[in-house]
Design brief:
With 126 residues, this protein is mainly α. The protein has 4 helices and no strands. The longest helix has 33 residues.
């Protein structure tokens, strides 16, 4: 007989399964949302100013709180809001680069979420 309780999972990689799953969902949904916001704001310019300004200010507020939990998401939201503000037509060539970086960031977030999901499935399977 062992001293371990019966309910304890034998797989140590599934200890924080809910937290890992939440992070994966945040990456995938964040990538999809950023892609949709970029495509919509590229078509409707005033919307890009509104959403970009809101995201920029929300990200700054997350950074001002100085909590470790909000640092990385706050940085991503602030940078995304700033790039959405730059997609307005008065910035010319910079608007094209801002849209490009937003699309690359959205694809990167989505791909990183998928990679994390595959890693989690692989670790749980062991």
């Amino acid at each position: 007989m062992s001293n371990e309780p019966e309910w304890k999972d034998a797989n140590p990689s599934s200890d924080n399964l809910q937290g890992k799953g939440r992070i994966i969902i945040q990456f995938i949904v964040g990538g999809i949302a950023l892609f949709i916001l970029t495509m919509v704001s590229a078509r409707i310019r005033p919307l890009s100013l509104g959403i970009g300004g809101f995201a920029f200010m929300s990200g700054l507020m997350m950074l001002v709180r100085r909590r470790q939990l909000f640092y990385k998401p706050g940085l991503i939201v602030t940078l995304s809001g700033f790039l959405l503000l730059l997609t307005t037509p008065r910035f010319g060539v910079v608007a094209g680069f801002a849209s490009f970086f937003l699309v690359v960031g959205a694809i990167g977030l989505f791909a990183f979420g998928l990679v994390k999901a595959i890693q989690l499935a692989w670790d749980v399977q062991k």
